[in-house]
């Protein structure tokens, strides 16, 4: 995943404040002065990630082939289209702490 952010008081502040698992490793790439941020930086989709394994699953005949449409929209593109169709009023109805207390809102667990 790629997140955009900036340095503030010597600390990296990520935009949209994603909640990341404790201890997860991260790589930071500093943009040089004037270097544009690639908003739609292409992240490999699942097909690209598993291409070397396709057709090698146990039980498949050696001549089995799977044709993948590499021009098909990624899951991220599909989700962006779905999200774009939701009216802002509906987003505004969500609790501000939804991401922090998702289990509470789904299962009723204590906050």
Short description:
This protein is of the alpha+beta class and 111 residues long.
Task: Please describe the structure with a list of short key phrases separated by commas or semicolons.
111 residues, alpha+beta, 7% strand, extended
Could you characterize what this model shows?
By secondary structure, this protein is of the alpha+beta class. It has one domain. 23% of the residues lie in helices and 7% in strands. The chain has a two-stranded antiparallel ribbon. A hairpin with a 2-residue loop joins strand 1 (5-8) and strand 2. The mean pLDDT is 77.
The major beta sheet can be summarized as: 2 strands, antiparallel
Helix content: 10-25%
| Gap from first CA to last CA | 28 Å
Determine the structural class based on helices, strands and strand pairing. Answer: alpha+beta
Order of helices and strands: EEHHHH
Strand content: 5-15%
Rounded mean pLDDT is 77
Radius of gyration: 20 Å
Helix tally equals 4
Number of domains: 1
Strand segment count: 2
Shape: extended
The residue ranges in which pLDDT falls below 50 over 5 or more consecutive positions are: none
Instruction: Give me the side-by-side strand order of the main sheet.
Output: 1-2
Topology:
Layout: E1 5-8, E2 11-14, H1 46-50, H2 75-84, H3 88-92, H4 102-107
Antiparallel strand pairs: 1-2
């Amino acid at each position: 995943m790629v997140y955009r952010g900036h340095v503030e008081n010597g600390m990296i502040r990520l935009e949209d404040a994603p909640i990341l698992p404790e201890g997860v490793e991260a790589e930071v790439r500093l943009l040089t002065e004037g270097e544009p941020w690639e908003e739609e930086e292409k992240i490999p989709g699942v097909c690209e990630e598993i291409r070397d394994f396709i057709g090698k699953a146990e039980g498949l005949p050696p001549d089995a082939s799977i044709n993948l449409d590499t021009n098909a929209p990624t899951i991220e593109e599909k989700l962006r289209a779905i999200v774009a169709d939701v009216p802002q009023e509906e987003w505004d109805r969500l609790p501000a702490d939804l991401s922090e207390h998702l289990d509470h809102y789904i299962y009723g667990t204590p906050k």
